Amino acid sequence: MNVIVVLLAGILIIVFVKYYLVNKQRNRPKRLSKSHLPPQLKTVWDIPGPRILPFLGTKWIFSIYYKINKLHEAYADLNKKYGDIVLEVAPAGIPIVHLFGKDDIEKVLKYPSKYPFRPPTEIIAIYRKSRPDRYASIGIVNEQGEKWHHLRSNLTPHMTSPKIY
User: Fold this and answer.
1) pTM
2) Using CB atoms within 10 A of its CB, is residue 152 exposed (0-12), middle (13-18) or buried (19+)?
3) Largest CA-CA distance found in the chain, in angstroms, rounded
C-alpha cells in the first residue's frame, strides 16, 4: 500500500515538474496591448492568460477566483488582467482564444470562413438547452456549423450597420 502511494506521489511530482519546466520555457507575455505586440508571438500558446495546470487547463480559476453565475465579471477581469486577447485552455488541452477588442472581433467576423469551429462554453450551452422556453438556440457564441452560419448571417448586418435599430 505504501509503495503505491509513494509511486503515485512520484508520478504526480514528475508531471508537475515537467509541466512547470515546459511552462517556463514558453515565457508567455503577461498582457497584450495594441500599442505593443511583441514580434515573437507565433502560436496560440504565446497568448497571455491564466496559468495552465495539467488536466485542468485554466478552468480551475472559475472554482477559486470567480463565481460561475457571474461569468461576465470573470471575463471582464481576465480582459483587465491580460489585455484584449486572452488564452483559456479547456481540460482536454484545447486552446480557447477570447477577443475583447472590437477591432479584433470585427476581423474574426469578417474573416471568410463559412463554418469555423470554436469549442463551446459548456456551462452556457447546457443552461440555454435547459431553458428552451427562453432560448431558441444555444447562441452564436456556442453554436457550430450551419446553425452558427444562419445566426451569424442574420446578426452581422445589424452589428456592422451604422444605423441604430
Assistant:
1) 0.54
2) middle
3) 71
